[in-house]
Amino acid sequence: QSAHRAGLRSFIRYGWRWSWRVAAFVAIFNTVSTGLSVYRNKTTISNFAAAGAFTGALFRIHLGLHGLAGGSVFGIVFGIPAGGLLMVMQKLAGETLQEKRNRERRELYEQKLAEWQSRLDVTEVLGQTEGNAQGGPWRER
Questions:
Q1: Cα dihedral sign for 26, 32, 33, 34?
Q2: Could you tell me which residues come within 8 angstroms of residue 139 by beta carbon, excluding any fewer than 6 positions away?
Q3: Which pLDDT score is estimated for 29?
Q4: Mean pLDDT for all residues in the chain
Q5: CA-wise closest residue to 54 among 35, 28, 77
Q6: Whether the predicted model's global pTM rises above the 0.85 cut
Q7: Helix 2-40 and helix 65-93, axial crossing angle in degrees, nearest 10
Q8: 67-89 b/e with 16+ CB inside 10 Å = b?
Q9: Does Transferase count among this protein's keywords (predicted)?
């Protein structure tokens, strides 16, 4: 029982040390890769590799130039399989995030176009009704 408690205490102590680092790494990685995907308007493996390189370099910059290079390599090695896995999972789901974003944008455009067209039709009907009420455009004065 005491060994169990000691193991639990060390798990909590070291788990906390690593959990915030992993959470920060993942948050920065996802922010950079999503930003690149939105900026370039496409999702590619190079986005994930660049995000991994940036994040790895950022976490190892305190070790100098060697740490910066090593962190970049570690980030690239981590980013490529992670990005590939995410892209494969999206393909298996049937629709990638890019396709979903384009579909939603197209549906919104079509909805606004239909709304605009219906408002234009109402305006034309009101104009015809007003013209008929005044005796038409050929009314003599």
A1: positive
A2: none
A3: 92
A4: 85
A5: 28
A6: no
A7: 80
A8: ebeebbebbbebbeebbeebbee
A9: no
Assess whether pLDDT exceeds 90 at residue 54: yes
CA 14, chain centre distance (Å): 32
Instruction: Specify the pLDDT at position 132.
Output: 66
Residue 26: pLDDT above 80? yes
What one-letter code names the amino acid at 141? R
Neighbours of 7 (CB within 10 A): 10
Mean pLDDT of 55-79: 91
Q: Which residue reads 């005491």 in tokens?
A: 2
Q: Which of 26, 78, 28, 22 lies closest to 49, judged by CA?
A: 78
Alpha helix (H) residue ranges in the chain: 2-40, 45-60, 65-93, 97-133
Planar angle of CA 75, 79, 85, nearest 5 degrees: 160
**What dihedral do alpha carbons 40, 53, 92, 41 form, nearest 10°?**
0
